[in-house]
Amino acid sequence: MHSTMISEAWIVLIFIAVLLALIFGFNAFVIVNEQHQVIMEYWGSYSKILSTGLHFYNALTTSPKYIAWGRSSVFQIPLNEQIFDPPNLTITTDDLCEIGVDIVIHYRIDDVKRAAYNTPNLLNVIAQTVNTSLREICSVMSVHKINRDRGNIVHALICSCDSILTQYGVHIIRAQIQNIKLPMEIVQAQSKAIATQTQVEGELQATRARMERNQMESEATIELKLSQENAEIRRRNLLLDSVFMMRDSTRPLAVQMILLDKWTNVAERCKLVCTDKSLTIGITPS
Predict the structure, then answer these.
(1) Which of 6, 157, 192, 252 is deepest in the core (most CB within 10 A)?
(2) Burial class of residue 80 in the structure, from the number of CB atoms within 10 Å of its CB (0-12 exposed, 13-18 middle, 19+ buried)
(3) Neighbours of 171 (CB within 10 A)
(4) Taking the chain, what is the end-to-end CA distance rounded to the nearest angstrom?
């Protein structure tokens, strides 16, 4: 009887030890980083979300949820702003030209539960949504309009992607079109048009300068002609004054002839002096 009681006691102790081992031996912990969250599952079903800090859980019944993140899997889901840089997208425009668009997306996960359970791979969903929306926007626009209205394209892309990705817990913060690769024939045509425009502007400036120069020369010629005519009129008036002076003079004829000859020589030596477009009459010294 005594040995039987000892055996039962050992059995109870072993059972308690095994139970404690099961309870404490399978306990684990997880450290959640700043700006991250971890989804915990109980027997494969959603249980709760762990925030930043140290957390203990029973590894036998509970485990963190791993999600596909590109080509890898993670269990800590980031909450801060993320950058998604998809490969260059080839788009056929409304004028049947193929262009390459390089775009960068800035996004943030607002609901980790939707991001983990509503899609098997979140980054693939973001890439497909961006590509589809960008094709729909640019396919009805010409190359010139796409290259000119980048701001409107980005705004329309953000609105379209944000409305679709809300069901996956993703919010599009902003987008940037870094480069638009045009077809080679369009690039050559644009270069030729720029060169032609530069040449035309240069010829136009040269023509304006030549017209202004001709106008200045014409004005100078007219001023010179008027100055010569005024000088001739002054010379004639001077001769007339000398003639009238001799006619009314009471001096002898010989003296009048000497005066006439003197005034004639003076009139012949009159000339027009132009300095800084100001007209003066000078007498050339004998």
Answers:
(1) 157
(2) exposed
(3) 16
(4) 169
Residues 130-150 have pLDDT tens digits of: 999 999 998 888 888 888 888
Question: Which DSSP category does 85 fall into?
Answer: -
What digits encode the pLDDT tens for the residues 40-96? 999 889 999 999 999 988 887 888 999 988 788 889 999 999 999 888 888 888 878
Q: Which of the following CATH numbers is that of domain 79-182: 3.40.50.300, 3.60.15.10, 3.40.630.10, 3.30.479.30?
A: 3.30.479.30
At position 272, the amino acid (one-letter code) is L
Say how many C-beta atoms besides its own lie within 10 A of residue 225's C-beta: 10
Distance of CA 251 to the CA centre of its chain: 95
Q: Give SS3 for 66.
A: coil
Q: How far apart are CA 18 and CA 174, in angstroms?
A: 56
Alpha-carbon gap, residue 29 to 239, rounded angstroms: 126
Tell me the whole-structure pTM to 2 decimals.
0.59
* Pairwise CA distance, residues 100 & 186, whole Å: 13
In contact, 88 and 101? CB cutoff 8 Å: yes
Cβ atoms of residues 168 and 115 within 8 Å: yes
Single out the residue of 62, 39, 30 nearest to residue 122, CA to CA: 39
- Indicate the pairing of strand 76-78 with strand 36-42: antiparallel
What angle do helix axes 184-247 and 253-268 make, rounded to 10 degrees? 170
Q: Which of 28, 100, 25 is nearest to 62 (CA)?
A: 28
Would you mind telling me the total number of residues written for the chain in this entry? 286
Measured CA to CA, the distance from residue 115 to residue 100 in angstroms comes to 30
